[in-house]
Amino acid sequence: MPFRPLSKYWREAATLILTAGARNGTRDMARVVADDLVPSRFDYRVLMLQRSGKSGFMPNAKVFPGGLVDDSDFSNEWLDIFDNSGLGHFDSMTSIRNVHDRSPMLTAKQASLVPNDVGYRICAIRETFEESGILLTRPWSVPDANTDMSEDSLNEWRTRVDSNGQEFLRLCQEHKCVPDVWSLYEWSNWLTPTSFFNRRYDTFFYICCLDKIPQTTHDKREMVKAQWLSPSEILRNFRREEHWIPPPQVYELSRMFQLPRLDELHRFSQERGLEGCERWLPVRITASDGVMTVLPGDDLFPDPPDLEKEQDLQTSATLLESRQSTKNLNRLEFGGKGVYSTTVCSNINQKFKHLSPMQDVWSED
């Protein structure tokens, strides 16, 4: 088995924050995948997929594309494909500056010869192809490389890959291309809270910036809708209860408010990605008028947290009282409307040179 799970309590996954320039693509293409192209201070859009109501995990949620690691993502065959491509150097992904406190997903020893930094990126790219039809690849650096595929051929490969992850290897071999792992940059790593004891995931978040919005179609199975929206649209519509998004997405989109220009976001992601990142486990604390999940850096975050068993942590204070009495904040608060009243509170200097989430983003445009 090339990939060895790191815990019996959760499964490893990878997701992709896929952004694309909104002013470089055609407006007709954008209309295919977005319902509402309102004026925005953001010159890019983010791909959001709506999960099926029949999904066993977070039904109806709007999420970034991604999913579980497949053994094929860490198959040693990938090394041959990268070697044959003439593109098989991974220094930009494996030369991370901060090894201390780096996510165990990337430091754990695997049986595969594929570096962890590469295998999880392959997973994110494969899942993005399955769920949205967007294929992020580079052609081999050889004279006869031809990665052009008809729409019918692309759809056929998409169905095959969705049924068997090993088919992604076959696709790249036959069409002489490789997953464009170099275009994905480390962004964050979230471990599902212990309260979700039946379904927990250790998910690595990558970010990728495209010049323009590509052809996009949801898979009509796990996903029922695909949209390219600005961060402000996503969060505003969430606040209006027009859709719901999981807390990690709220936090990461709030970070992106700091960089409304695609060129700035790309430069930051490329440089910051070399710093690495740590794993975050949100720890739930029940307040008198709601719930908060505290994150590393918050004064109430337990050190060390219990990664496996739920802790019954409570406070008699209200959410506001707790916030006002805490010096170092890094948390998500959920008031009377539950997830729809999510508030991000953070005043700490983020580790690994990361962005702090912008506060009170709900009315931003």
Question: Could you outline the blueprint of secondary structure elements for this entry?
Answer:
Layout (H helix, E strand, L loop, with lengths): L10 E11 L5 H7 L10 E8 L10 E2 L2 E3 L8 H9 L5 H4 L9 H4 L8 H17 L4 E3 L11 H13 L2 H9 L2 E3 L5 E7 L9 E10 L12 E7 L1 H9 L7 H10 L5 H11 L6 E2 L2 E5 L2 E5 L18 E2 L4 H7 L4 E5 L8 E4 L19
Parallel strand pairs: 1-8, 7-10, 11-13
Antiparallel strand pairs: 1-2, 1-4, 2-3, 2-9, 5-6, 7-8, 11-12, 12-14, 14-15
Helix pairs in contact: 5-6, 6-7, 8-9
Largest sheet: 8 strands, mixed
Q: Approximately how much helix is present in the residues?
A: 25-40%
Mean pLDDT: 89
Number of beta strands: 15
Low-confidence stretches: 25-38
Radius of gyration: 20 Å
Element order: H for helix, E for strand: EHEEEHHHHEHHEEEEHHHEEEEHEE
Helix tally?
Answer: 11
Q: How far apart are the first and last residues' alpha carbons, in Å?
A: 48 Å
Strand content: 15-25%
- What structural class do you assign from the helix and strand content? alpha+beta
Q: What is the 3D shape?
A: globular
Keywords:
single chain; 365 residues; alpha+beta; five-stranded mixed sheet; 11 helices; 15 strands; 21% strand
Protein architecture, described:
With about 375 residues, the protein is an alpha+beta fold. It has eleven helices and 15 strands. It has helices at about 25-35, 75-85, 90-95, 105, 115-130, 150-165, 165-175, 230-240, 245-255, 260-270, 320-325, and strands at about 10-20, 45-50, 60-65, 65-70, 135-140, 175-180, 185-190, 200-210, 225-230, 280, 285, 290-295, 315, 330-335, 345. The strands form three sheets. Strands 1, 2, 3, 4, 7, 8, 9 and 10 form an eight-stranded mixed beta sheet that branches. Strands 13-11-12-14-15 form a five-stranded mixed beta sheet, with helices on both faces. Strand 14 (about 330-335) and strand 15 (about 345) form a beta hairpin. The longest helix is centred in the middle third of the chain and has 17 residues, at about 115-130. It is globular and about 65 Å long. The N and C termini lie far apart (about 50 Å).
